[in-house]
From TrEMBL:
Major site of localization recorded for this protein: membrane
Cofactor(s) essential for the protein: FAD
Keyword Magnesium part of the UniProt annotation: no
Pfam families: FAD_binding_8, Ferric_reduct
Transmembrane segments: 38-56, 76-94, 133-152, 164-182, 188-206
Protein name: Ferric reductase-like transmembrane domain-containing protein
Keyword Iron-sulfur recorded: yes
Species this protein is from: Thauera mechernichensis
Subcellular location: Membrane
Keywords: 2Fe-2S, FAD, Flavoprotein, Iron, Iron-sulfur, Membrane, Metal-binding, Oxidoreductase, Transmembrane, Transmembrane helix
Residue stretches making up the FAD-binding FR-type domain: 212-310
InterPro entries assigned to the protein according to its UniProt record, in alphabetical order: FAD-bd_8 (IPR013112), FAD-bd_FR_type (IPR017927), Fe3_Rdtase_TM_dom (IPR013130), FNR_nucleotide-bd (IPR039261), MRET (IPR050415), Riboflavin_synthase-like_b-brl (IPR017938)
Length: 439
């Protein structure tokens, strides 16, 4: 994620820099030139990153392979939006700095304000007013997105207004960009970004995101293997393209609530039947068992993701680590391996659970692994003091042995394991994880 955003920002800054290098400063003084170019650069970065966020919001499956999966696309979308808001705030601060510069250096050397007259001048005035209003709305939206306690069902509807805010800012950028930009590389780049962001906004506003990947189905079974877990089995119609073990899909049971993403906890057996293990993590998932019934219609969009069986490097030691509900993709992996147990690779599967005696997945894992002799299952019961640590994993490593770790679970747990294993194993380790997060 960091390399992609850094490269994107670098390209925008380079395009801006080429324009600056060709400028003739004239009689403008340095403080005023710095303010002017700071205004242009911060605005370019803000609208550029927001355009990127809008394009990524359309769930472009063609970018799953180069970016590492839809989970990372969502994460990139989130941070592109956050950085866009940061640069938008900086843009506003630079705009407000003229009074400070005047009080210190006076008006001498201030770049002349271009007078265009007619309709164009009216558009620029409107763009300035609209831009300031939209910036406030975008900043408020980012704050709500980062505030995890703000209910998802309300955030989701507010978030749907983001394309409108983007179109307002796109208008602001179009009419207030220096006219000289449009004949230079920076203008070409800006035009492409605005076009992409505008098309993405229209796709979102017309409800076309993921439309071609949606299929209809019916709920065939609902159960509660544990008080905080709901198991739902769905059978989809003939349009379902099938899925790879470990992928996820968006499931919609109610129109107002919208679709939520869940990992598919079963392999593809060719019968278009999907199983979902859904943990109660919010208001909606806590009530799911009582709100969903057998025979109920369901809409499924997908599949998405590249945390899939088949991408493993079997020349390295395979370590699969699941924490809590992060066990779901591994349930699908093990289910798929049952079709050819003799071909299953040697694997060490570690499952960390809060209380093994009350965990419905423990017996499920044991049952699946009993059919797979090459898979060694390790249950880590935290209630009994059996914590999974990097040191415990590294202690079993053979000198010089390379390892590939596949992790799905709580973010903090994953960060701790990744940092510890990187310190102990160094370059012999490759750590792969599902980075899915809607907010």
């Amino acid at each position: 994620m960091i390399p992609v955003l850094s490269a994107f920002i670098g390209i925008l800054a380079l395009a801006w820099g080429l324009n600056v290098a060709a400028l003739d400063g004239g009689t403008a003084s340095l403080p005023w030139l710095v303010r002017e170019q700071g205004l242009y650069l911060s605005g370019l970065l803000a609208i550029g990153l927001m355009s990127l966020a809008m394009v990524l919001a359309t769930r472009p499956t063609m970018l799953e392979r180069p970016l590492g999966g839809m989970d990372r696309i969502f994460r990139l979308h989130k941070w592109a939006g956050i950085l866009a808001a940061v640069f938008a705030a900086l843009h506003w601060l630079v705009e407000m700095s003229d009074d400070v510069i005047k009080s210190i250096y006076g008006r001498t050397g201030r770049p002349a304000h271009d007078e265009f007259g007619g309709l164009y001048e009216l558009l620029r005035d409107a763009g300035e007013e609209v831009g300031e209003f939209a910036i406030y709305l975008v900043l408020a939206m980012v704050v709500l997105s980062l505030w995890k306690r703000f209910p998802y069902k309300f955030w989701r509807h507010l978030h749907r207004a983001m394309p409108v805010f983007y179109l307002l800012l796109a208008f602001h950028a179009t009419v207030l960009a220096p006219p000289s930009y449009w004949t230079q590389p920076v203008g070409v780049l800006l035009a492409l970004l605005l076009a992409g962001g505008t098309v993405a906004s229209l796709i979102a506003l017309t409800g076309r995101i993921g439309r071609h990947r949606k299929v209809q189905g019916v709920v065939t079974a609902v159960s509660s293997p544990a008080p905080d877990v709901t198991e739902i089995v769905c059978r989809l119609d003939d349009a379902w393209p099938g899925h790879q073990a470990g992928q996820f899909a968006f499931i919609g049971f109610e129109r107002f609530e919208g679709a939520h993403p869940f990992t598919i906890a079963s392999a593809d057996h060719g019968n278009r039947s999907l199983t979902f293990q859904i943990k109660a993590l919010g208001d909606y998932t806590r009530q799911l068992a009582s709100r969903v019934a057998v025979g109920q219609a369901v809409t499924v969009e997908g599949p998405y993701g590249r945390f899939v069986l088949g991408r493993q490097d079997h020349t390295t030691r395979q370590i699969w680590i699941a924490g809590g509900i992060g066990v779901t993709p591994f349930l699908a992996w093990l289910d798929a391996l049952r079709a050819a147990p003799a071909a299953a690779p040697p694997v060490e599967l570690h499952y960390s659970t809060r209380r093994a005696a009350q965990d419905p997945f423990v017996e499920r894992l044991r049952s699946l692994c009993a059919e797979l002799p090459s898979v060694r299952l390790h249950i880590h019961d935290r209630a009994a003091g059996d914590d999974l640590t990097p040191e415990r994993l590294a202690a079993t490593a053979t000198t010089g042995q390379r390892a590939e770790v596949w992790f799905c679970g709580p973010r903090g747990f994953g960060d701790q394991l990744k940092a510890g294993l990187a310190r102990l194993w160094g370059r012999r380790l490759r750590f792969r994880r599902e980075a899915f997060e809607m907010r």
